[in-house]
Write a structure and sequence with these properties.
With about 325 residues, this protein is α+β, with helices and mostly antiparallel strands. Helices cover about 20% and strands about 45% of the residues. It is built from 6 helices and 20 strands. The strands form 4 sheets. Strands 1-2-3-8-9-16-17-20 form an 8-stranded antiparallel beta barrel.
């Protein structure tokens, strides 16, 4: 009897314990395996290769994780040479080439007189305008770090880093068909500078392509005013006989952006795509240097140069890009 009572007590204790234990196992959540690309200790143990296309150019890059939450990307981008054409008037003595009276008839201008003089005396012709071609020349090495703030989501990321390349990102150059006009302008200005005060050429004034109006007095190294505020600036040929305007920024351009990365299909997790957007910090307003050292975005009011007006407002460069990524190992 006593033995039966002890067995009954043991049974009453053990059975509830078992009943509580097994259900607790059934509701445990399985641990979600982490992508081996992001495993701890895999510093530079994996490599992605990508092709990129965006507003900063076309390029190639490689990427590798440096910890569970970040990867490093390095690469090179080159901007295709998109071109824009624009014509600008030739001015002589501050006058436009074509002027008209009250009845709409064309009047003789200083340009007409200067052109006739150069044709008669030098056999050189001067068109009433010069066409320019603007093109991007931007190319950069890039060093970027993607930070993935969500431990269980390696899609959304923040990006910091920098682009590094030549300071010249674009240029404007007269079309080759206008080299003769640029040469004529140069020869005319030489003749004008060397002429005696009573020479008729002094009545016409200097010649050049309309580059705008000076905002302030421009002084030389000795402090002498060489260009007065409000006077016309005339673009003339440089040492190579062409008019070339170089657009320049800082060589090192910090970058800040955000992006999203995902696989194309579940069957091919080794192939991914990514979209990124951000800004490249140029270091202030880009400079546009003429052959004689005038900075068009700083020194001039650029009437007729809409491109200059646009560039002067872009103190940062907005970027958006698309990448196709292949995991190598």
């Amino acid at each position: 009897m006593k033995r039966s009572l002890i067995l009954l007590v043991i049974a009453l204790v053990v059975i509830p314990v078992k009943a509580q234990y097994y259900p607790s196992q059934s509701i445990e959540k399985p641990v979600r395996p982490m992508d081996p690309y992001w495993h701890t200790g895999n510093l530079f143990q994996h490599l992605d290769v990508a092709l990129s296309l965006g507003t900063s150019g076309i390029g190639i890059e490689v990427a590798s994780p440096i910890c569970k939450y970040a990867q490093v990307r390095v690469g090179y981008e080159l901007m295709p040479h998109f071109k824009k054409h624009k014509g600008h008037d030739v001015l002589v003595g501050g006058q436009t080439s074509h002027q008209y009276d009250d009845k709409g008839y064309r009047k003789e201008t200083n340009y007409d007189k200067a052109r006739d003089l150069m044709w008669r005396e030098e056999g050189l012709d001067m068109y009433d305008h010069v066409n320019f071609t603007g093109r991007f020349t931007m190319q950069n090495f890039k060093f970027l770090v993607d930070v993935f703030p969500l431990a269980d989501n390696k899609k959304l990321h923040l990006t910091v880093g920098f682009y590094w390349g030549p300071s010249e990102i674009a240029d404007f150059k007269n079309d080759s068909g206008y080299d003769g006009t640029v040469a004529c302008i140069t020869a005319y200005n030489t003749k004008y500078a060397n002429a005696s005060p009573d020479n008729v050429i002094k009545e016409y004034g200097p010649a050049g392509v309309n580059g705008g109006v000076f905002k302030n007095d421009i002084k030389d190294a000795s402090g002498k005013v060489i260009h007065k505020a409000g006077s016309n600036y005339l673009l003339t040929g440089g040492n190579k006989g062409t008019i070339n305007v170089a657009v320049k920024t800082n060589s090192i351009k910090p970058y800040l952006g955000v992006g999203y990365t995902s696989i194309f299909t579940k069957k091919r997790p080794d192939i991914k795509w990514a979209v990124t957007g951000g800004v490249m910090f140029w270091g202030g307003t880009p400079s546009m240097y003429t052959p004689d050292g005038i900075n068009m975005t700083k020194d001039l009011k650029y009437e007729g140069w809409g491109t200059v007006s646009l560039i002067s407002k872009l103190q940062v460069y907005p970027t958006i890009g698309f990448r196709v990524i292949k995991n190598i190992f």
